[in-house]
Amino acid sequence: MTKLKYISGGVTAAKGFMAAGIHAGIRKNSIKNDLALVYTAQPAKIGGVFTQNLYAAAPVNYCRQVVERGTASALVANSGNANAVTGDQGVEDTLSMAAAVAAELNIAADQVLVCSTGVIGVNLPMEVIKAGIKAIAPVLSPDGGNDAAQAIMTTDTVSKEVAVEITLSDGRVATIGGMAKGSGMIHPNMATLLCFITTDMPINSAVLQTAVKYAADRSFNMLTVDGDTSTNDSMLVMANGIIGGKMIEENTADFELFTEALTAISIDLTKMMAADGEGANHLLEIEVVNAFSREDAARAAKAVAASNLVKSAFFGEDANWGRIICAVGYAGITLPENKTDMTISSDGGSITVMQDGVGLVFDEILAKKILSAKDIKVYINLKCGAFSATAWGCDLSYEYVRINGDYRT
Amino acid sequence: MTKLKYISGGVTAAKGFMAAGIHAGIRKNSIKNDLALVYTAQPAKIGGVFTQNLYAAAPVNYCRQVVERGTASALVANSGNANAVTGDQGVEDTLSMAAAVAAELNIAADQVLVCSTGVIGVNLPMEVIKAGIKAIAPVLSPDGGNDAAQAIMTTDTVSKEVAVEITLSDGRVATIGGMAKGSGMIHPNMATLLCFITTDMPINSAVLQTAVKYAADRSFNMLTVDGDTSTNDSMLVMANGIIGGKMIEENTADFELFTEALTAISIDLTKMMAADGEGANHLLEIEVVNAFSREDAARAAKAVAASNLVKSAFFGEDANWGRIICAVGYAGITLPENKTDMTISSDGGSITVMQDGVGLVFDEILAKKILSAKDIKVYINLKCGAFSATAWGCDLSYEYVRINGDYRT
Hints:
The structure is a homodimer.
Chain A: E1 5-7, E2 17-22, E3 35-50, H1 58-69, E4 71-81, H2 87-105, E5 112-119, H3 126-136, H4 145-151, E6 160-167, E7 173-181, E8 194-199, H5 205-217, E9 234-239, H6 253-275, E10 283-291, H7 294-306, H8 308-315, H9 321-329, E11 341-346, E12 349-355, E13 358-359, H10 364-371, E14 375-381, E15 387-394, H11 398-405
Parallel strand pairs in A: 4-5, 8-9, 10-14
Antiparallel strand pairs in A: 1-6, 2-3, 3-4, 3-9, 6-7, 7-8, 10-15, 11-12, 11-14, 12-13
């Protein structure tokens, strides 16, 4: 029944895209890949959403301008250094990265997207990066997607890729694939983290942007690992239109199918990030239904997913549902009457812990079994409206504190 | 020069107040005090601020009504059970607690304030509580303040009390003293935690309420331990006027002095709570100056104090100032231009880490020394307005996660 066919791959799954990932040496004391490049010979229309942080990094401000112009042929991204809060030098370094990539690929510098992730407030090691760009361009390959996905990782423990095929109404088959990084400093209401998606669909940039915003609001903007919104969060989508045929337009079945596919893979990447949240043992999915508005549903779901007390309780596998309802209560939503129901479930079973606004006595042994599963769902029925939303998060562990107590040095 | 004279004691420092704290048996497997009573034979005017949580506990809704009426003679508080999300039974139990205290003290039931703190969603053990109320009333004493302060503790590691004397313009000496509890589930923008303050000042309830709101906004509402706002947070002030003479009125030097004293002891209790934050090793004081508005200054300061990444970095004694500025950046403030300066200081020294919006290279060895101190101050100059605010918080440690992973069971 589903119209989405999952296939292997990431940013190079769609036709015409090549990618590479190498160890340029930006990260000291590590041999991990730290420089990624994505390229399409056929110029792409682009869409993008970005962090709302006031101290947005130089590459973010730069990419906003590229997205406004609407086209690009390449994307370069480094990990190990965020080039954020780096003043005029940071702006200059971003432009130098774009120029260096443009020179290697023989394209205009304004057709190069530039992203950085890593430590804040330190200037980029430009000699290392320039040498890296010279080294990476020749190894671009239609099979380079995973190398690139590894190069954008910071504290991620696994690379994150997904791809789907869709069949349009006229029989054309389009591919959408992407990669993402992010396991800390992730919080809703922003175009969180780094996510790069490519597609061979023919679509203009304004229509693409509509789909990107829709997908981001239902995926990355509903993800929280630690409540912090980075200076560098960016979601970028490149559409090179290489399958040909007519452009898809808004308010058509094909546009809906494309948006559905883009949203689905964004949610997949979101769940991969939540499951890989720094130090996480459990993936938490919080579904709020029958809220007064969609915004209320989203707020309530995100407040639960972001609560340190809720996250600590799930780490301890303790069915402390009082903390969950407490988080709903301070989310700032409209709730004319407390008739709330709550159910917690997993592969281990399901328990209703609250009914019509009052706590229930439940089987603690079953609760322990449910909470020992890796993936846990919390279902909250507010019974005061018709709007729903789902947020994702993870538990808060000793390991989160260890990772973040000593990240910079 | 200061007009406040610190003295020993807490809720029984002011004339005419008696208190007691006993182990009633509400907490299982513990011999800790869990029931507190405060009483003044001369009825008191009262002021109070409460949690804004939608699932506010039954005793909170009850106390709101008492504060609206404006007078009370007694306050009963239990730890070990929050009586929150307990439906009609919870409301009935609150009224029963008030009635039981009233019967013992021979006062009207509507003159009894009732507070609960502890686990959410479990009905109060009313037989234990009623027996406890019978046992506690006879041991009320002018020396019972510390027993009461211990009885309201939950995961607190130390009891929190403070008292000051002020001399009014006509030579009258008034005393203000209080106690508080709270080390988890504490977050700004709410009348956080439990705080009970008593005074022998003659002041009517409307004037008192003005002072209470002012003090709460500059103290408890600027405290964050974990970003969670409880169902039960309450600050209550009782003024029995026993020193006599004329009532203090708003817009007088005496009112200003009283408000200053109330704010000072509220800040003292706030700092005690931040320092005793669950698992905390460091007390963090975040001062934001020259913001566009007072609300902006408060938002920015609280965003920094609430950031898990900032808190983890301070746990690791890592001068990761990029995370601090990142939190300012997502606080939702107005900042026309990034000219921000930042200094981090403690008994160990002081370092400027950011100047005119750009990160500085600094002495890492000195930074480690500064961050190894117990009390750490962060000073952020936004250079875009004339408003300031200070927030308090603590670091995020393994111990926080341990405490909260297994609180309920």
